[in-house]
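Ops channel
N.P.: pipeline sanity check, posting one input/output pair.
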């Protein structure tokens, strides 16, 4: 089984921001009693630039802006957590930030690690299915 040490912070934040919002919120709600005092430093929506890469030349450009929800928390122990997700779901962003803080503080790591491993597997399956669907539309053309 994968553990949180198998994921970098960037990787587990990505997994949480692509997981089911309801499930992430439910997990965060379950660990709140173990976190102690929580100070919300930031909880807001905003716009961020969406980078994309030109497939022909490999140059990065900005495709446009996307609406995001963002949260930043500090536990009584001084540990901070951060969360961001696409859309305006501030509770989801807050749940991600709380789970980030819990992992940094090594609180309820086993349960969170299990959730991350399950979500990573589900997301991998979804990516593979999408790739197969895209591959099925590929055509070979001959030019003269």
């Amino acid at each position: 089984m994968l553990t949180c040490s198998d994921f970098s912070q960037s990787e587990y934040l990505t997994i949480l921001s692509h997981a089911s919002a309801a499930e992430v919120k439910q997990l965060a709600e379950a660990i709140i009693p173990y976190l102690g005092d929580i100070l919300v430093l930031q909880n807001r929506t905003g716009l961020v630039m969406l980078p994309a890469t030109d497939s022909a030349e490999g140059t990065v450009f900005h495709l446009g802006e996307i609406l995001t929800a963002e949260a930043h928390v500090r536990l009584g122990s001084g540990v901070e957590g951060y969360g961001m997700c696409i859309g305006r779901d501030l509770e989801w962003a807050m749940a991600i930030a709380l789970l980030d803080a819990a992992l940094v503080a090594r609180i309820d790591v086993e349960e969170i690690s299990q959730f991350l491993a399950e979500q990573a597997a589900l997301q991998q399956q979804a990516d593979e299915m999408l790739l197969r669907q895209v591959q099925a539309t590929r055509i070979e053309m001959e030019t003269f």
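N.P.: looks fine end to end. Residues 109-136 form the longest helix (28 residues).
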